[in-house]
Specification:
alpha/beta, Rossmann fold, globular
Length: 295
């Protein structure tokens, strides 16, 4: 048995095409061009790469975007002042502050400073609360992308036992809340297993769908899976590989080679969840520009 590969690049491409078409309709009918502001503090190389990829996606959608690259010495007050200025700017419908921030700046205070209607990351407490109680909101991009991967690949989680490995505020917790809602593409029985669990396999061997988001390279193996399950690998880790010119290669939180022999469907790394995050970011920006989520 060899698992079907869930192609995140293809599914993300479909979503981006939908967003681009809807953006043109919004521009034509209401003279609104979605606008997104990026703020990056410091010179973290990975953050720079992520922001450039997001800027490129915005340009491809026909969005208006601005980027503020601030020095690492920027104070918390200066950053929040900039956010408040963007909150008041009518041509900007989304604000994204690239994480992580320098240690002297509180991520919680920064996130709370963003107008929740422009919180395209879906991290603001208002959006988190609305997600938990099943109200429309801007949802965190990676968990929302996982749901789209499942439904669009023919692996609807409705009625299935989903085990989420990880409890982060960015992936684990919001994904669990998305999938347990009594809504289409959800309504699953959800278990969260985390570092407090003595044995992940006690949970994963009973799962119809496993989502790995624990940040440990190749930690989930085929021996820990139920025959025919679906595996979604959120992890992206660099491990040494002297056979490559870079000296490393990218792997997920799943041991792909052993897992694909057990699973019925699986996401690769790279090319699985990763492309979905940016696709959902541009969709969130479009939703914010349309202005209908919050009544």
């Amino acid at each position: 048995m060899s698992a079907a590969i869930i192609d995140g690049r293809k599914i993300a491409g479909s979503i981006r095409a939908e967003v681009k078409a809807a953006t043109e309709i919004l521009r034509t009918n209401r003279n609104i061009i979605p606008g997104l502001a990026f703020i990056i503090v410091g010179d973290d190389p990975a953050s720079q790469v992520y922001v450039r990829a997001k800027e490129k996606a915005c340009n491809e959608m026909g969005f208006h975007s601005v980027t503020e690259r601030l020095p690492a010495t920027t104070t918390e007050a200066e950053l929040i002042s900039l956010i408040k200025r963007f909150n008041a700017e009518s041509t900007l419908h989304g604000i994204l502050v690239q994480l992580p921030l320098p240690t002297h700046i509180s991520e919680h205070k920064v996130i709370e400073a963003i107008d929740y209607r422009k919180d395209v990351d879906g991290f603001h407490p208002v959006n988190v609360g609305r997600l938990v109680i099943g109200q429309p909101s801007l949802r965190p991009c990676t968990p929302a992308g996982v749901q789209e991967l499942l439904t669009r690949s023919g692996n609807d989680p409705t009625g299935k036992h989903v085990v989420v490995l990880g409890r982060s505020n960015i992936v684990g917790k919001p994904l669990a809340n998305i999938l347990l809602q009594k809504q289409p593409g959800a309504n699953a029985v959800v278990t969260i297993a985390h570092t407090g669990a003595k044995d992940f396999a006690a949970y994963t061997t009973k799962a119809d769908i496993v989502v790995a988001a624990i940040g440990k390279p190749e930690a989930l193996t085929g021996a820990m899976l139920k025959e025919g399950c679906v595996v979604i690998d959120v992890g992206i880790n660099r491990i040494p590989d002297l056979t490559t010119t870079s000296g490393y290669r990218l792997v997920g939180d799943v041991d792909f080679q052993s897992a694909e022999k057990i699973a019925s469907a699986i996401t690769p790394v790279p090319g699985g969840v990763g492309p979905m995050t940016i696709a959902m970011l541009v969709r969130n920006t479009l939703l914010a520009a349309e202005g209908t989520l919050y009544g």
